[in-house]
Amino acid sequence: MAQRKKGQVQSSAVGEEAGAHTGAGTQPQQAGEAGAQHAAHDAAHQAAHQAAQAHARASRCSSDSAQWETVALTLQGGGALGAYQAGVYEGLFEAGVAPNWIAGISIGALNTALIAGNAPEHRVARLREFWETICQPAWSPPLPAFVEHALFNAGDAIRKTFTAFQAAGAIVEGQKGFFTPRFPPPLPNASGQPGKASYYDTTPLKATLERLCDFDRINSGEVRVSLGAVNVGTGNFVYFDNTNTKLRPEHFIASGALPPGFAAVEIDGEYYWDGGLMSNTPLYEVIQTTPRRDTLAFQVDLWSARGPVPDNITDVQGRMKDIQYSSRTRLVTDMLQRSQRFRHVLREVLDRVSPEHRQDKWVELADELSCSKKYNVIHLIYRQKEYEGHFKDFQFGTTTMREHWASGLQDIRATLAQPGWLEKPENDSGFVTHDIHRDTRGHGNGPR
Description:
The active site is at residues 106, 274. By secondary structure, this protein is α/β, with parallel strands linked by helices.
C-alpha cells in the first residue's frame, strides 16, 4: 500500500512537471498567436485607412476636375515607353478624373484608341491586354516569367545585356500583334508602293486595334479624340479629329508610322507619317483651340528634355532621342503661358473701359483677342532608368513594360495627392503648370 502511494505521488509529480512544461510551451505559442493577430489587425486597420484616404482623394479629385470645361489627356509618342501613359491613365481612373478630350501622337495615339474605344470600366483592362500582347515576340515563344524576372533583377550589367537582347529581338522578328519584318526586306533603291516602303509591316496592329477597340464608340463624340500626323506629300502637320472626321484604325496607325521602320499610311488618297517627325507634343492643339475653354490638361511626356551629358557613343544616341522627341515641351508651355497672360491682362483692361467707348473698332478687336479662361497644365514626365540605353523606345520586354506602367501610376498618384494642384489659377496670367518631379524639389510653379 505504501509502495502504491509512493508510485501515485511520483506519478502525480511527473504529471505536474509535464503540465508545467506544457504551460511553459503554450505561453510562447499563445504570445505568438496574439502577436500575429495584433499584426493582422494592424494591417487590416492600415488597409482600411489607406482605402478611406484613397476614397477621399478620389472624391476630392473628381470634384476638383469637374469645375473645368475641358479635362484633356495629351499623350506624347515614345514607342515602348508608352506603358508609362497606361499607368497614368489607371491612376486618373481610380481617382475619378475623367478626360473628355484625349489627344495623342504615335504610341500616344494607340493608347488614345484603347481609352476612347472602350467603356470607362473596361479601359484599364484593355490597355493591359494590349501591352501584354505587344510585349511578346512576334513568332518565338516568350521566356518563362520567372526566368525573365530573374534576369531583369540579376544586377545592372546583366539587366543591360538582357534588355539589349530584347531590343535586338524586336528588330529581328518584330512584336506580336504590332509589327513584323517584311520578307524579303526592301532594297534601298527599288521602287514600289509607298505603303510598302518600310522595313516592317504593321498589318498585325490593325487587327489588334479592331479586336480591342470599338470605333463606333470612338466616333460617338463621348470623348473628343485628336491624332497628330504628317502629310508626306505636303509636309504639313495635321490633326485627325472625331469632331470632323470619322476615325478608322488607319488614322491611329498613321499617327505612329515612323519611317523607315513603318510605311506611310494611305487615307483618302493622301499618305501620312508619324506626327512626331514635326511635333511630338499635342498640348499646343488642346490649349490653342477656339472657342477657348477653362482647361485642365494632363500632359504625359515619354522623353525628358533634361538629362545627363553623355560620355560615350551609346549614351549619345539615347540623349539625341531625348532632345529630339521631347519636342521642346518647356518652350511650348512658356509660349502658351505668355500669350495667355497677354489675353488675360487685356480682358482685365477691357472690363475697365467706359461704356461709351465699347463700340470703338479697336476696343472690339481687343475684345476678340482677349480671354478670361484659365489653364492648368499637369506635367507627367517619364524618368529614364539607369539600365536603359538608346534602344529604350523599342525594348518591349514584359518586365520593363510593367515597370514603366508602375512608374506612371506612382507619378500620377503622387501628383493627385498634392493639395490644390487641380484648382484654377488666380494669378495674372490665368495659367499654371505643375510637375511632381520639379515642384517637390522646390523649383517653383512656373513652366518646366
